Amino acid sequence: MQHFYLSKTAAACCKCERRTFKLLSNLQPSFVSLSNKKLYSSQSEKKPAETLGTTRALDPLDIFGENKDERRKEKEKAIKNLKIGFFFIGASLMMVLGSGLYVLMDDNYYKKDEDEKDMYPVRLFNRGRLAIREFFESMRAPSYEKLLPDPLPYPYIQPPYTLIIEMTDLLVHPEWTYTTGWRFKKRPNVDHFLEQVSQNYEIVVFTASNGFNVYPILDSLDKNNVIMYRLVKNATDYIDGHHVKNIDRINRDLSKVIMVDWNADSVKLQRENALVIPRWNGEDGDQQLIQLAEFLNVVSASEVNDVREVLSYYKQFDHPLEVFKENQRKLLEMQEEQKQISGTLPINKARGSWKDKYLYGK
């Protein structure tokens, strides 16, 4: 019985082994096919990469026809230079801000009129705002306070009146052509005007143009050196987008100063001292400078104490010299009538109502 039991057990074990073997046999093809599939997949994945690498090796140029490696190196170099530039810009800004902060903290000039009750950062902010405002004001103001030196002392001859005249479109006119480029046309009767006016006026050319343009033109225009002073762009005040001539800095008695200009915005600070006449556009038959010389000589010959009284009257007219010419004609007619009654009356010796009639048209 015992032997039979063992044989039965051994038979059962044999059956288990056969079943296990069959099971493994059934599983083996699937495992092998899976392994083959994985192997095939890995080979298929490697193949496109190898093909792409081969394509890159065969085609080193990009769509622009440039070498890709060179473009990459140039791009890296540009990025490096950009970083260096940003570093220096940042360092410069830090130095400027640090210097400005140091000045605001130690300079007593910017501490004026500040409230000690304010917090320290607030006071620093107010000092910085004051410094920035004064900087921009200095950029708008002339380069110097006195535009002209002191009048000539005795025994030198100082003319009794000062004439401040614009150069562009009053004495010369800029023109441009394809053949010559920019050039300046001399106004008719300029030489006669300067010669006549220089006898009783200190002539000052005051223009908003740059000096490197103005000085060569005046050197060619003023052959007799009757123009005593030349003021250019850096002598003007920049106000509301205009370069304005501020004759408060002229260092002369304003009751004896006459400004002649065609632009009312240039003389708006002292309009009572200005004679605004039409702009010259280059016409050949112009005679306006002769009329202007006659007007100025009459003012000086009449020994006007305050030229602002005369100029205020002509300020209301668009063509003041034409009005002056008409007043002169009326006065001459009155003088002819007077001659028949009481003899001659020289124009330059006219006084009282005669002078008023001649200058003011009253």
TrEMBL record:
- List UniProt keywords, sorted A-Z: Membrane, Mitochondrion, Mitochondrion inner membrane, Protein transport, Transit peptide, Translocation, Transmembrane, Transmembrane helix, Transport
Q: Per its UniProt record, what SMART domains does this chain match?
A: CPDc
* Membrane topology, as annotated: Single-pass membrane protein
Residues in FCP1 homology domain copies: 159-287
> GO CC terms on record?
TIM23 mitochondrial import inner membrane translocase complex
| TM region positions | 82-105
UniProt keyword Transmembrane, yes or no: yes
What broad class describes the main subcellular location of this protein?
Answer: mitochondrion
| GO BP of this protein | protein transport
Q: Where does it live in the cell?
A: Mitochondrion inner membrane
Q: Which domain of life is it from?
A: Eukaryota
Q: Which family does it belong to?
A: Belongs to the TIM50 family.
Role description: Essential component of the TIM23 complex, a complex that mediates the translocation of transit peptide-containing proteins across the mitochondrial inner membrane.
Assembly: Component of the TIM23 complex at least composed of Tim23, Tim17 (Tim17a1, Tim17a2 or Tim17b1) and a Tim50.
Question: How is this protein named in the record?
Answer: Mitochondrial import inner membrane translocase subunit TIM50
Source organism of this protein record: Aphis gossypii
